[in-house]
Design a protein that fits this description.
By secondary structure, the chain is of the alpha/beta class. The chain has two domains: 164 residues, HAD superfamily/HAD-like (Rossmann fold), CATH 3.40.50.1000; 67 residues, Trehalose-6-phosphate phosphatase related protein, domain 2 (Alpha-Beta Plaits), CATH 3.30.70. It contains eight helices and twelve strands. The strands form two sheets. An eight-stranded mixed beta sheet has the order 5-4-3-2-1-10-11-12, with helices on both faces. It has a four-stranded antiparallel beta sheet with strand order 6-7-9-8, with helices on one face. Strand 3 and strand 4 form a beta hairpin. The longest helix has 14 residues. It starts with a helix and ends in a 7-residue tail after the last helix. Bound molecules: magnesium ion. The site of magnesium ion (MG) has 7 residues, from loops. The site of magnesium ion has 7 residues, from loops.
Length: 247
């Protein structure tokens, strides 16, 4: 069974963004969103009666600007913020990040290839431009996180991110599934990163399916080779379900 086979009107579709729907870019803001991806997501949103949500480490505001004019239900900053189908956004309580920010900025000052990203609710240290600094970044961020109750360190692709312990993609997916129009549906979650593994496990425990995009070990039961293959899969699903072919 492929994702296309499984996509039915009683499904809820949860989608990571970077590395899943779009190719990862050297800089986070350089990501390119193909116009036909917006059209595909719009068609799926109609087909599933609104039960399509983006579940990302990015803030919701960035997801919105990439997908505009499309506005989808979304969980941002790994679930620290979540906007339901009713358009209301819920924020988890903010944890003081001062200790972590000082450490991350000090490291970036010494190593200009590092990049600190501050979000509402998390601080990410990106080392994509300096992969040799991975160990240094992880150790420093881990030590800083341990100084601050309520924070945990999340490891992603070329990034170490301090976030509230209560924020995670699996919890965000479960929260969506308690609300209309997601409640009672079979959850499908597609992601590419270590941070998505908890989401795969959760949807599969709930009778759904996890789909891993790209290489690497995973608990997901299905795999797609690349974001491009993922976009094609979604487009095929739209066409097969009677949607118009996307030009
Ligand atoms: Mg991703």
């Amino acid at each position: 069974m492929t994702l296309t086979d499984l996509l039915c009107p009683s499904c809820a579709l949860f989608l990571d963004f970077d590395g899943t729907l779009v190719d990862i870019a050297p800089q986070p803001e350089a990501v390119v969103v193909p116009a036909r991806l917006r059209a595909t997501l719009q068609a799926l949103h109609s087909y599933l009666d609104g039960a399509v949500a983006v579940v990302s480490g990015r803030p919701i505001s960035q997801i919105d600007s990439f997908l505009a004019p499309l506005v989808l239900p979304a969980a941002g900053v790994h679930g620290a913020e979540r906007r339901g189908a009713d358009g209301q956004t819920v924020h988890l309580p903010i944890v003081d990040m001062q200790e972590v920010e000082v450490v991350a900025r000090a490291l970036a000052a010494r190593h200009p290839a590092l990049r600190v990203e501050t979000k509402r609710g998390s601080i990410a240290l990106h080392y994509r431009q300096a992969p040799e600094l991975e160990g240094l970044c992880l150790d420093a961020m881990q030590a800083a996180v341990e100084q601050t109750p309520g924070l945990t360190l999340l490891r992603g692709k070329m990034v170490a991110e301090a976030k509230p312990a209560g924020a995670s993609k699996d919890k965000a997916i479960e929260a969506f599934l308690r609300e209309a129009p997601f409640a009672g549906r079979t959850p499908l979650f597609v992601g590419d990163d270590i941070t998505d593994e908890v989401g795969f496990a959760t949807v599969q425990r709930l009778g759904g399916l996890g789909v891993k995009v790209g290489e690497g070990s995973t608990t997901a039961w299905q795999r797609l080779a690349s974001p491009e293959a993922m976009r094609l899969e979604l487009e095929n699903a739209v066409v097969l379900r009677g949607g118009k072919a996307i030009a």
